[in-house]
Specification:
The longest helix has 7 residues, at 29-35. This protein has a single domain (2-119), classed as Metal Binding Protein, Guanine Nucleotide Exchange Factor, Chain A, CATH 2.170.150.70. It has helices at residues 29-35, 118-121; strands at 2-6, 13-17, 24-26, 40-46, 50-53, 57-62, 68-73, 80-85, 91-95, 109-111. By secondary structure, it is mostly beta strands.
Amino acid sequence: MKIDGSCYCGKIKFEAEVNPADVRICHCIDCQIMSGAPYRANVPAAKENVRFTGEVKLFLKTAESGNKRYQAFCPECGTSMYSCAEKDPPVYTLRVGTIRQRAQLVPKSQQWCRSAMQWSVDLGGVKERYELQRPGIR
């Protein structure tokens, strides 16, 4: 599937080809902290199938496994764009939230479930729903 996307401010843009069957949710603590959310949705794109415009800021982190991975962010707005191996990355793990076609990229698997916030697994218990912002919130 051909996709395209950008960071929030538009400074970083990309086009890629991905397999929708590879979309996954990651519940690891790193994804929780770096996204500010209970999990993050990702999809891998082979290096030869992705093109970026704009310069990202890279942060090298060491995962629980000991592997070193770069986390790429927009230096202007801070949007998390992707992660990749430290050296000669064969794959870029794109953040689904940055993809324009994100509604079509339904996750097929979840990983690092031992770190999952149990309340995030089934949101059926959250009864209050609003089409826009909840009234009274500024």
